[in-house]
Design goal:
Keywords: Oxidoreductase. It is built from 1 helix and 7 strands; from the N terminus they run ββαβββββ. It is globular. Helices cover 8% and strands 31% of the residues. It has one helix at residues 18-24, and strands spanning 2-5, 8-11, 31-32, 39-40, 53-56, 59-63, 74-79. It is mainly β. It binds FE2/S2 (inorganic) cluster. FE2/S2 (inorganic) cluster (FES) binds next to loops.
């Protein structure tokens, strides 16, 4: 299956997390921190650190390491606290 990330098509296996699929595709970072804009990606890999946040179908603050990749999803990198159609 495939989903889009930052406008590019990414392949994923059924049951694979977004984070795992992005790493398999060669990405190492996709989020920037709120104050310094430092790059982040998967750090803990178990849902604790929140370094891997992405915007999934307009919904920010989704943990890429815990969220399953789904066919047709539109994933975007997250800047700071996140912006999206469903951001608070
Ligand atoms: S890598 Fe730590 S929460 Fe996802």
């Amino acid at each position: 299956m495939t989903f889009s990330f930052d406008g590019k098509e990414i392949e994923a296996e059924p049951g694979q997390s977004i984070g795992a699929a992005l790493i398999a595709a060669g990405y190492r970072s996709w989020r920037t921190t709120r104050h310094e804009g430092a790059l982040r990606g998967v750090f803990c890999g178990i849902g604790v650190c929140f370094d891997c946040l992405v915007v999934v179908n307009g919904r920010p603050n989704q943990r890429a390491c815990l969220t399953d990749a789904r066919a047709g999803d539109r994933i975007e990198p997250q800047e700071g606290a996140g912006h999206g159609e469903f951001a608070c």
